[in-house]
Specification:
alpha/beta; 19 strands; 23% strand; 12 helices; eight-stranded mixed β-sheet; elongated; 436 residues
Length: 436
Amino acid sequence: MNISSELRDLDRLGLEMYQLVADLYPICRSITGDGVRHTLQGLQQYIPLEIQEVPTGTQVFDWTVPKEWNVRDAYIKNDRGEKVVDFQVSNLHLLNYSIPIHQKLPLSQLKEHLFTLPAHPDWIPYRTSYYQETWGFCLSHHTLAQLEDGEYEVSIDSSLTDGHLSYGEYFLPGKTDREILFSCHICHPSLCNDNLSGIALATFLAKYLSTATRRYSYRFVFIPGTIGAITWLALNTELTRRIQHGLVISGVGDAGAMTYKQSRQGNAEIDRVVSHVLQNSGRAYAIEEFSPYGYDERQYCSPGFNLPVGRLSRTPFGTYPEYHTSADNLDFVKPDYLADSLSIYIETIEILEANKRYLNTNPYCEPQLGKRGLYNLSGGHQTTQERQMAMLWILNLSDGKNSLLDIAQRSKIAFTAIAQIANILIEHHLLTEILE
């Protein structure tokens, strides 16, 4: 796979991804509405994203596309007319999907609609009410403690009407119609790691794959969490037959170790490739078994589809205190971590692209390597020995059934070394590719 050399400039790419995160950070996103559209339109500056609009009321399996929500302003004022909670200061202050309201009420009643984090009194929590029509505000616990008894004016200038669910899709055709799917959610407001980091990585991965020679076709979907994945699957059920591998991209900008959640299949090629990449990365990592709880991998892996889709992130959602709070901000994600995550995705793609099956054209005993100049390849002793062992393993296991990844795992030699030697053997007509 010929990925542009620019893609290897990870320091620069990390900074550019971070800048995209910063640009999208102020937008108030939800599962529907103008915030999602503005986000997708921003991504169109990087990739030719197609924006799809699905009408309210559309039946998608057991779900229905909800009403569209938009918000212009929201605040709480005390009896002196001072704003004590202000949506314009932080869009996390408003319970996402709050219905419109404008009334006065005492503090005792107001508190029934307020959400805080006592364990982190300076942070604002992120809360939603997608499928229950209500209203509320989120604020720091310190602010709540300072509210005095009295009457408060509550104003939420929002709308909840028939409209559309928006999502973005970008397709890159390859030499085959077999597809690799990348999916990220776009439904959170000002949260950097849990939302924007995945959007930024997916965008830059798509941008630079567009310049590559591709064996597989690639499909990138930017969708609202849960309802978006369900909607996309309902509208593209037949297309899913082409999906050979897939990853849900989320939480890729924090300092934690890379974490891979396996697909429901557990031993799909994508599961084995990511595990191999992490094992040979020299970094700390973790592998989690599939569970039907999490991000949209649980939709792609539902029994009716059972697609080979895992989730590749850094610190898993819900296991770091900043998750779904105002502390998941521009200080929490770093360009270096975004770049490091991107490099893992690139290595995964390179293996998927190169992981083919071959047939040994000289299967009866070992071929004479010396007369072909292959017995003593140049390099240091350890390198030479490993290359010779890689050659022997490839020749022995290339029976048309084993892939290069199978050989790498069986031999305990890194895939990159196996692939390099396989190309040498092909040049010397000792291997022929099994076409699929």
